[in-house]
Here is the input.
Amino acid sequence: MRIATWNVNSVVARLDFVLDFLVTRQPDIVCVQELKIDDQGFPRLAFAQVGYAVATHGQPQWNGVAVFVRSEAAPPPEIVQAGLPGQEANGARLITVRALGLRVTSIYVPNGKSITHPDFAMKLGWLDALAAHLRETHEPDALSIVGGDFNLCPGDLDTWNPAAHVGRIFHTEAERSRFEALRTLGFKDLFREKYPNDATFSWWDYRAGAFHKKHGLRIDLLLGTDAVLDRVTSVSVDRDFRKKRSDRIPSDHAPVVVELDLPVG
DNA sequence: ATGTCCACTAGGAGTGGA
Here is the structure.
């Protein structure tokens, strides 16, 4: 089974990239963030035509999350939660589905803007609410995945220039301690568990040639319970989908993909 | 490099967000 997470930075602007990712990589499940479209406007038909069912929790203009499921020989995803309880006013940032025998959550953590901005406190509160929600709904023995854009670097290996970012947003102890709380709940960082010493990034700023210069961050993460972790065979970043294609502009995030030793269906 | 790209409003270029 192949499961991915990808912040697409507008599913409408990125439709060609996203459909090509599905067709060429054939992921079984994809956690998606930054749809930037409401559920009515979501281009469902285009996804059905390439064999994917979608569960969306969108809003106009900003945010929005989804889970795509390869529909060949599989029932469509069943939505079990749309929106993080108590945090609905802060944007459409969480959806949980049951699909292919797994519980899968796609999240888009608030950016926070800067550590002095009111949005930073909102971000920390959102992460606290996420931990509380995962604690309440946790099935310790289940195959559970939380994938998404966490808008934080878990450790110094996850940032291209740690010295320049000490104490800055995405790198603060306040953010990292909340990430650690998710691990304590039983949600392990699949990439880091598999590769304790690898510096691999998933996001590069559009500006200043950051991708070319390898000035990136690892902020797009797939977390899983031990039942998932035991079945991980690889975790990779699909950098091809961060590359410009003739006149087409990519998202500033690349897909992160985990391969599991787990049959589909 | 304050560097780019998105959606929205508006009917063009500016704003807010990331």
Notes: Residues 9-10, 12-13, 34, 36-37, 60-62, 111, 113, 151, 205-209, 249, 251-252 of chain A lie near DNA strand B (CB under 10 Å from a C1'). The mean pLDDT of chain A is 96. Chain A is about 25% helix and 25% strand.
